[in-house]
Design goal:
With about 350 residues, this protein is of the alpha/beta class. Helix content is about 50%, strand content about 10%. The protein contains 13 helices and 8 strands. Bound molecules: nicotinamide-adenine-dinucleotide.
């Protein structure tokens, strides 16, 4: 029987509780998942688990390629795994969710970025260059262990971009069609955690208190992403990031102020709490200023997007209409992407 809401625990060194948590799930042979770059973290977790660990699989990749999932599933079966431990960011957690979808493994997630995927029933998978997204509660992990000691190694730019990826979930939740008083409250908890915590993290990447505060923000932002539907910002990021193979979190960081500025013309009241938290009048400008202070990437051209690709991004986005609080027009999208591409402030 699956939990519909994963249990979340926070604290320095909490990753060492992974064996106890697996035992409580009656899971005796966990496979530890990671990306190639985080193989050492996987080895550390497997060493903690001792002889019961079924092994490690360290081929997790961005956008959950189905071929990697199939390889991981075959590996899990060949080593007799009965459960999963995902240590990493959205890529590794996505792989664990994809495996749980196919084989119903219980999972412990140990997030090392702020993307928030561990708290959502959403899975994006890629096959033959096409990304499809599904929602299924059975892919949620049973337990999430948020350990600030594992996030200190996240480099400065990835720390800021991943934080803004989380902020994007909460910002769009403020005007989501399915929003409730409870979802708005959760979104504001997440936003507050990043607005107050991120400057301290950036001042000292090894500040464990600030890292824990921002991890609590990631949990709130991921949770609210699982409760409501997303709009212009997330759709645009998927189109731009997916079509031109740009880094996921950085694309969120660049586009967020522009998408929020565009929508604030239609729902200024719903976005006012965000502007207030950031001490600004326009939420989009305030986000842009905040990102600049945090040294976030500000221009799609710096991420590798070419100027001529703007028209194509607009065309793909217009082909796939989606709900948004403000009508989405080709002219509006072009203005957003031109400013985001050049690194201009929103509405310039
Ligand atoms: P990621 O998991 O792809 O990690 C990016 C890089 O950072 C990798 O090389 C990884 O090894 C490295 N890394 C991660 N944590 C580290 C740490 N603490 N120290 C050093 N290096 C570290 O990045 P991400 O942005 O967390 O995840 C992106 C993926 O997650 C995308 O595929 C995206 O679609 C997905 N995502 C899904 C949801 C959802 O709800 N389904 C939500 C957000 C993101």
């Amino acid at each position: 029987m699956r939990n519909t809401v994963p249990r979340a625990r926070f604290g320095r060194g909490i990753r060492h509780e992974v064996g106890t948590e697996l035992a409580a799930l009656n899971a005796g042979r966990p496979l530890v998942l990671a990306t190639p770059g985080q193989a050492e973290m996987a080895l550390e977790i497997a060493a903690d688990l001792g002889e019961c660990a079924a092994g490690i699989f360290t081929m997790a990749a961005m956008h959950t390629p189905v071929a990697v999932t199939e390889e991981a599933l075959a590996h899990a079966r060949s080593v007799g795994a009965d459960s999963l431990v995902a240590v990493g960011g959205g890529s590794t957690i996505g792989l664990a969710k994809a495996l749980a979808l196919r084989a119903d493994f219980p999972q412990v997630a140990i997030p090392t970025t702020y993307a928030g995927s561990e708290a959502t029933p959403i899975l994006g998978q890629t096959e033959n260059g096409v990304k499809t997204t599904l929602i299924d509660k059975k892919i949620l992990p049973e337990i999430i262990l948020y350990d600030p000691e594992l996030v200190v190694s996240l480099p400065q730019q990835m720390t800021v971009s991943s934080s803004l990826n989380a902020v994007a979930h909460a910002a769009e939740a403020l005007y989501a069609r399915e929003r409730t008083a409870a979802s708005t409250e959760t979104a504001l908890v997440g936003l507050q955690a990043f607005v107050t915590g991120l400057p301290n993290v950036i001042a000292d990447l090894s500040d464990l208190d600030a890292r824990e505060r921002t991890l609590r923000g990631a949990w709130a932002c991921g949770t609210v992403l699982g409760q409501v539907g997303m709009a212009l910002h997330h759709k645009l990021c998927h189109t731009v990031g997916g079509s031109f193979d740009l880094p996921h979190a950085d694309v969120h960081a660049v586009i967020l102020p522009h998408a929020i500025h565009y929508n604030s013309a239609a729902v200024p009241d719903l976005l006012a709490p965000l502007a207030t938290l950031l001490d600004g009048r326009d939420p989009g400008w305030a986000l842009w200023e905040f990102g600049k202070r945090m040294k976030a990437p500000l221009a799609l051209r710096d991420l590798g997007m070419e100027e001529y690709q703007i028209d194509r991004a607009v065309e793909i986005s217009m082909r796939n209409p989606y709900w948004n609080p403000r009508e989405v027009t080709a002219e509006g999208l072009t203005a957003i992407l031109r400013n985001a591409w050049a690194g201009n402030p929103p509405g310039a």
